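We read letters as residues; the integers encode the fold. Take this protein.
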Amino acid sequence: MTYGRKGHTATVLRNGKVLVTGGYNSTEQSLSESELYDPLADSWTTTDTMHYARSSHTASLLDNGQVLVIGGNGNQSYSLDTVELYDPITEKWLLTGTMIEGRNMHTATKLTNGNVLVTGGYDANNISLNTCELYDPVNRIWTITDQMNQQRTNHAAALLIDGRVLVTGGYDYMNEPSRTAELYDPLMKNWTLTESMNYARIDFTASTLMTGKVLVTGGYTGNEVSNTTELYNPLEGNWTETKNMNYPRRMHAASLLQSYNILITGGHDDIVSFHSTEFFYIVNETWINADDMNDARAMHTASVLSDGRVFVTGGFNNDTDYLNSTELYDLL
């Protein structure tokens, strides 16, 4: 890439290209620069610059093919309320109103009706929020929806097969990692608590499997970096522990492959960043080590391309360098 980045986003567009936005550079400044990776040409090109520098933001691919970028840390404002749309046809950014509340380290989940649900995050005073908002991409407007039962930052959200959203963990109102979980119902537009995870977690991943269950991996528990994993069953509303990963990891990435297995890449154990990667096999719920990455990295992105390969960008390594390197994992 042109810029070393961590805390950025990477979105696979409908044309197969990957849009990378924002993130922190090596001087801990948020970036406004965006760039495009073309897998066919194996090349990068710069594209239009966002109106605001941002990191710890979110990017969502909308039904119309545009990319919605929300909030994040700005260089002059801790929690941005600004929102922008990237149009892959014109390769331009367009401001699209503002959220009702500025936030960073939040989640953004595209619902089955095309709307985007935004939850939690830190406000401008570094306080975790329980507020939630809905973005309507057709009318380009924001509306407040029901508040979560708990304030959350650096949490995870997973869209369930039935259209509900499962939100788990994160920092609570005391800025401590939480093990609680709750469900958002888009039809009723309300939140209900469900059974708590077995472990409190931040800096973890949550992935919806083809079975309908949600796999949660690793993270920081408040005492240690964890290699534990657990599965949420939406039909029974409960959590069960499954086999541990081979390495404790936080700030790693999880990719749902075309085989429906999960690939975990990199991460950090509070001492070093990892080259290592591993597979979660959905059939027997076991972990198998995979090929190491060329660079150790955490706070990177991992995107599944249209041809099934996994594309990894940026992050930071053991020398605290902010990486501009990228690599492709071929499963064949």
